[in-house]
UniProtKB/TrEMBL annotation:
Family from the record: In the C-terminal section; belongs to the class-I pyridoxal-phosphate-dependent aminotransferase family.
Organism: Streptomyces xanthii
Keyword match Transcription regulation: yes
Keyword Transcription: yes
All copies of domain HTH gntR-type, residue ranges: 26-94
Keywords: Aminotransferase, DNA-binding, Pyridoxal phosphate, Transcription, Transcription regulation, Transferase
Pfam families: Aminotran_1_2, GntR
InterPro entries: Aminotransferase_I/II_large, HTH_trans_reg/aminotransferase, PyrdxlP-dep_Trfase, PyrdxlP-dep_Trfase_major, Tscrpt_reg_HTH_GntR, WH-like_DNA-bd_sf, WH_DNA-bd_sf
Recorded GO MF terms: DNA binding; DNA-binding transcription factor activity; pyridoxal phosphate binding; transaminase activity
Name the record gives this protein: PLP-dependent aminotransferase family protein
Length: 478
C-alpha cells in the first residue's frame, strides 16, 4: 500500500524505501539515504517532486522522525534535495536521471555471427596466456615494494632498457633508453607529439592519404589540424608535402596502411631531406613492422636520422591491444616537453604491466611470440590468396608482402561499390572498401581485407560468401 503522505508523482519510488525501513537499526539511516538517493538518480523521484514532511514519512515507514530528518539534510547537502523554511522538501532541479543502460563501446567481436574482414586486429586467441602468467608470477615475487609507487613518466628503466635492445636489434632503431617514453599505445604517443608541436606553434600536421581515418579526431584533441597528403607508388608524394607548408608529418614508411607498400629508398631519403631543409619532424608509425613474409622487415626510417624522426610502435598486434602498451622514441629536442606532458596526462603507465612486459622480453618470450604470429598470419594470408583465386578469379591482390591485411581489387563488372557492399552485408560478410580510408584511384572495387583475426576455415567461407554476394541471383557477375 502506498502511504497517503507520499505525493502521487512520487509513488513509483515508494517500493525503494521499504527495504530501508526494514533494515537493521544501525544500518537503517544509511539505507534510507541510499534508497532516496537512488530514487532521485533513477528518475523515479523526478525534479520538482515535493516529498512528505519528515513527520509524515517517519510515521508511514515506522521509523523515527530524526532518522528521516537526517536523511533529508544529508541529501540536501549533497544537492539531491532542496528545502526552504516553511516551504517543504523537494527534489532538486539540478539532478538529471542516469542513462538507462551503459553502452558497450568496444569493437564488435569478430566472428560472432558474421565473417568480419575489417582490417586492424590481431588474433586475440593467440595471446600467450601461460607465458604471460609465468611472467606475472615472477614479477610479483621479485618486484621491490618501492617500485609500486608512481613510476617514472618515461616508463620503468628496466622496460626501456629491454625496448632499446629489442628495437635496435629487430628494427634498426637508434634507441637510447633515456629517449624512450612508454605510452598507452601509438595513439597516446602521437597525441603527445601533437600537443607538444601545437604548443610550439605548429598549427597543422600532414598525414598520408589514403591512411588511417583516426587522425582527424586525434589531432583535433591535441590541437593541430590535419592536412591530407597524397601517396604514390613509392610513398608520400614529396611535391604536395613541400607545397603544404606543414613541418610535421605522420608516416608509415615500413608498411603503409592501407596500401601495404614500403617506402622506396629514394622516397625515404627525400622525406628526410625535407625534414632537414624545413626544420620539420617525421613521425614514424611502425605499423605491422615486424610482420613481413617475403624477406626481412625493412629497417626503421628513424635509424637514418634520429634527430628528425620520432619513432612509435606498440604490442597491440604482437600481443593484444588491451594491454595498452607502446613506446615513443623521441628526438632529443622534444624529449623534455614530451615527458612533461606525459607526466601530467596520466602519471605514467601501470608499473606491474611494464615490469611483466620487460620480463617477457628479457626471457625471449616476446621474440617467440613474434615468430608464432608470423607463421600463423602467413598461413592465413596464403589461405586468403587461394580463396580469392578460387572464388573471385580475375581479382588483383596487392599489399601482401607484409602486415595483416591485403587489398583485393575486383574486376569492374563486380561494381558498383555501394551495391556490392550492401549485398556483402546482407550475406553476412563485413568488409571495408579502400575508399573508406581516403583517395582510391583504382579501377573497379578495391576491398581492404583483414585476415589475421579470422581462422583459416572462416577466411575461405567468407570469400565464398563474398563471391556469392558479388553476383545477382542469376549467378552471373553484376
Amino acid at each position: 500500500m502506498i502511504p497517503s503522505s507520499l505525493p502521487q508523482e512520487a509513488s513509483a519510488a515508494w517500493e525503494l524505501l521499504l527495504p530501508a525501513a526494514a533494515a537493521p537499526a544501525r544500518a537503517r539511516g544509511r539505507s534510507l539515504q541510499s534508497a532516496l538517493r537512488e530514487a532521485v538518480r533513477s528518475g523515479r523521484l523526478t525534479p520538482g517532486t515535493r516529498l512528505p514532511s519528515s513527520r509524515d514519512l517517519a510515521g508511514d515507514l515506522g521509523v523515527s522522525r530524526g532518522l528521516v530528518t537526517d536523511a533529508y539534510e544529508q541529501l540536501t547537502a549533497e544537492g539531491y534535495l532542496r528545502s526552504g523554511r516553511g516551504a517543504g522538501t523537494w527534489v532538486s532541479d539540478a539532478v538529471r536521471a542516469a542513462a538507462p543502460a551503459v553502452r558497450d563501446l568496444s569493437p564488435r567481436r569478430p566472428g560472432d555471427s558474421r565473417v568480419d574482414f575489417v582490417a586492424g586486429r590481431p588474433d586475440l586467441s593467440m595471446f600467450p596466456r601461460t607465458a604471460w602468467s609465468a611472467a606475472q608470477r615472477a614479477v610479483l615475487a621479485d618486484l621491490p615494494h618501492e617500485q609500486l609507487g608512481y613510476p617514472d613518466p618515461r616508463g620503468l628503466p628496466r622496460l626501456r632498457t629491454a625496448l632499446a635492445e629489442l628495437l635496435t636489434r629487430r628494427r634498426g632503431v637508434v634507441a637510447d633508453p633515456e629517449r624512450i617514453v612508454v605510452c598507452s599505445g601509438v595513439t597516446q604517443a602521437v597525441t603527445l607529439l601533437g600537443i607538444v608541436l601545437h604548443a610550439r606553434g605548429e598549427r597543422a600536421v600532414g598525414v598520408e592519404d589514403p591512411g588511417s581515418p583516426q587522425y582527424e579526431e586525434l589531432f583535433a584533441t591535441a590541437g593541430p589540424r590535419v592536412v591530407r597528403l597524397p601517396m604514390d607508388d613509392e610513398g608520400l608524394a614529396l611535391g604536395p608535402l613541400r607545397a603544404s607548408g606543414v613541418r610535421a608529418v605522420v608516416t608509415t614508411p615500413g608498411h603503409h596502411f592501407p596500401s601495404g607498400i614500403a617506402y622506396s629508398a629514394d622516397r625515404r631519403a627525400g622525406l628526410l631531406a625535407w625534414a632537414r631543409e624545413t626544420g620539420g619532424i617525421v613521425v614514424e608509425d611502425d605499423y605491422d613492422g615486424d610482420f613481413r613474409y617475403d624477406r626481412a622487415p625493412v629497417g626503421a626510417l628513424q635509424g637514418l636520422d634520429p634527430d628528425r624522426v620520432a619513432y612509435t610502435g606498440s604490442v597491440s598486434k604482437s600481443l593484444v591491444p588491451g594491454l595498452r602498451l607502446g613506446w615513443l622514441v623521441v628526438p632529443d629536442g622534444l624529449a623534455d616537453e614530451v615527458v612533461a606532458r606525459k607526466q601530467y596526462m596520466d602519471l605514467g603507465n601501470p608499473t606491474l604491466d611494464q615490469a611483466v612486459l620487460a620480463h617477457f622480453m628479457e626471457r625471449g618470450d616476446y621474440d617467440r611470440q613474434l615468430r608464432r604470429c608470423q607463421r600463423a598470419y602467413k598461413e592465413r594470408r596464403d589461405v586468403l590468396l587461394s580463396a580469392l583465386e578460387t572464388y573471385l578469379p580475375g581479382t588483383r591482390v596487392s599489399g601482401i608482402a607484409a602486415g595483416l591485411h591485403a587489398i583485393a581489387t575486383l574486376p569492374e563488372h563486380y561494381g558498383p561499390e555501394r551495391r556490392l557492399l550492401e549485398r556483402c552485408a546482407e550475406a553476412g560478410v563485413t568488409v571495408r572498401p579502400l575508399s573508406a580510408y581516403g583517395r582510391a584511384e583504382t579501377a573497379g572495387v578495391s576491398l581492404v581485407l583483414g585476415y589475421a583475426h579470422v581462422p583459416p576455415a572462416r577466411i575461405t567461407e567468407g570469400v565464398r560468401l563474398l563471391a556469392e554476394a558479388a553476383r545477382p541471383s542469376g549467378g552471373r557477375p553484376a
